[in-house]
Amino acid sequence: MSGGRLVILNGTSSAGKTTLGRAVQDLDEAPWILTGVDHYWSRLPRRYLDDEAGNPDGFRSIYDGEGEARRTVGFVVGPTFRRLMYGLHRTVAALVDAGNDVLVDYLPFDDDLACDAVSVWADLGGVLVAVRPPLAVAERWERERGDRDLGQARVMFEQAYAFGRFDLTIDPSTTSPREGAERLLAHLRAGEPATALTSLRERMVGPLPGNASTDGPSRTS
Predict the structure, then answer these.
(1) pTM across the whole model
(2) What's residue 212's pLDDT?
């Protein structure tokens, strides 16, 4: 069985990752599977994502201010949410190994999860794409969409692009979703080698595949 293709659409909250992924699905004849953090996030019981309850095992946002002035100023990744992200990395790899083309809407919440993602995905030939509008634009989109806590785009911005090296960068503020999808598909068709993940693995987690952070499981575990 030959493996499928992997494209990681990496960026901060409200950067336009899902919109770009849907445009690729609409434009290309291949049956791309679009999944990602929000897809897995929504499968947890609400009590693990309830910011007011502050469940330490899930994902908890830290706020400043009240009412309309409330803003996200930080977040805490608990062990249950961390295990979910480890699982995301490995189920995506399983889909690709089974021959599926996969688009992943992704952001690494901390260095541990970034290292784990790189170690699991580095040998799959994945293309790491920075979906990176200016911060001010992401913040405007955040306000306009109305389904995100204000402040998420800003507080996640630096960590979202902490990989530092990408195979392709797309700025959705200067291109339409279709234009961005055409550029991504042209990159794939050109057959240019995807080197970002393997280079990042050398830098972040060492030369051996599956050598994730000390707390993370291996790809085959």
Answers:
(1) 0.85
(2) 37
